[in-house]
């Protein structure tokens, strides 16, 4: 039976859990090219026979990689079109609950037309550069270009002219041990260029000192936005906090209707040092 589900923020965590299994090929059925030359296709079914995960592997530089990533990023950058695609799949699933061929044929024109548009969109100089980037998250202690550059970046995004020493001292005491705070992180691309940052700290200039750790210093460079990189940061922070033995993570923000998309829940307000009301969010974390 074909089921099309609404996006679930938990899928990122589920993906990370399954990705570790893929590396050792546990439980995945290898299907070879499976109709697409140059592909290596793997799939995983649950105990009832329902397919839960699929892996498509291509050689680096393959046109199939380029078109898939272009289509993905185009959809992320055009949520109205992504919503239209979701509605089409829901409709086709209702009309063809047991006919995979009919389901695929029904969305073929839409996919091909928007893939064409996506490749054109991605061919612009800026999007071409961003499309090819791969990202990873590092503790500042691990950053290959040095701690001082990491400090300068985070201070530039969040500090003021008169508090470099404050940020420097805090970041220099970042831990990379299994437990403990603070923990400062950088997101970098495959050229080790910094594209964002975040931290887990004991307090983020908020009156609720009884709560911790706090997700703080979240920033993504404008050229790299629209790719859900903040979600990768949130998931990494949750995993790190759970590994360190915490059950919840908190954050304070001025944003409205953003963190809710990723599973954060609003709780009672707190106060900033200048007495202003500040919204507080929380999220439960675990290693399971």
Write a brief structural summary:
The chain is of the alpha+beta class and about 290 residues long.
How are the SSEs placed, and which strands pair?
Elements: H1 11-22, E1 29-30, E2 40-45, E3 51-57, H2 63-77, H3 79-95, H4 100-122, H5 125-131, E4 135-139, H6 147-158, H7 164-172, E5 183-189, E6 194-201, E7 214-220, H8 229-243, E8 248-253, E9 265-266, E10 270-271, E11 277-284
Antiparallel strand pairs: 1-2, 2-3, 4-5, 5-6, 6-7, 8-11, 9-11, 10-11
Q: How does this structure look, described?
A:
This protein is of the alpha+beta class. It has 2 domains: 11-131, Beta Polymerase, domain 2; 135-284, 3-Layer(aba) Sandwich (Aminopeptidase). It has 8 helices and 11 strands. It has helices at residues 11-22, 63-77, 79-95, 100-122, 125-131, 147-158, 164-172, 229-243, and strands at residues 29-30, 40-45, 51-57, 135-139, 183-189, 194-201, 214-220, 248-253, 265-266, 270-271, 277-284. The strands form 3 sheets. It has a 4-stranded antiparallel beta sheet with strand order 4-5-6-7, sandwiched between helices. Strands 8, 9, 10 and 11 form a 4-stranded antiparallel beta sheet that branches. Strands 1-2-3 form a 3-stranded antiparallel beta sheet, with no helix packed on it. Helix 2 crosses helix 4 (100-122), helix 3 packs antiparallel against helix 4 and helix 6 packs across helix 7. The longest helix is centred in the middle third of the chain and has 23 residues, at 100-122. The relative contact order is 0.09. The mean pLDDT is 88.
């Amino acid at each position: 039976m074909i089921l099309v589900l609404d996006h679930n923020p938990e899928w990122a965590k589920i993906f990370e859990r399954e990705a570790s299994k893929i590396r050792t090929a546990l439980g995945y059925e290898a299907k070879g090219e499976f109709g697409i030359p140059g592909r290596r296709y793997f799939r995983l079914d649950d105990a009832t026979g329902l397919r839960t995960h699929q892996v498509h592997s291509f050689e680096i530089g393959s046109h199939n990689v380029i078109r898939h990533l272009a289509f993905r990023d185009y959809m992320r950058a055009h949520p109205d079109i992504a919503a239209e695609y979701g509605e089409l799949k829901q409709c086709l699933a209702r009309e063809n609950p047991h006919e995979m061929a009919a389901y695929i044929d029904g969305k073929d024109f839409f996919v091909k037309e928007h893939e064409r548009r996506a490749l054109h969109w991605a061919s612009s100089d800026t999007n071409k550069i961003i499309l090819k980037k791969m990202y990873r998250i590092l503790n500042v202690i691990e950053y290959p270009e040095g701690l001082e550059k990491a400090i300068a970046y985070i201070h530039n995004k969040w500090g003021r002219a008169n508090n470099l020493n404050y940020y420097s001292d805090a970041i220099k005491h970042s831990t990379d041990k299994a437990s403990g705070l603070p923990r400062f992180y950088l997101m970098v691309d495959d050229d080790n260029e910094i594209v964002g940052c975040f931290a887990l700290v004991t307090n983020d200039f908020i009156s609720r000192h009884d709560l911790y750790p706090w997700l703080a210093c979240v920033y993504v460079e404008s050229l790299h936005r629209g790719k859900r990189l903040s979600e990768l940061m949130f998931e990494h922070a949750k995993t790190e906090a759970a590994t360190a033995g915490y059950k919840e993570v908190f954050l304070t923000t001025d944003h409205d209707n953003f963190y809710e998309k990723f599973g954060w829940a609003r709780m009672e307000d707190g106060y900033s040092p200048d007495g202003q009301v500040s919204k507080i969010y929380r999220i439960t974390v675990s290693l399971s």
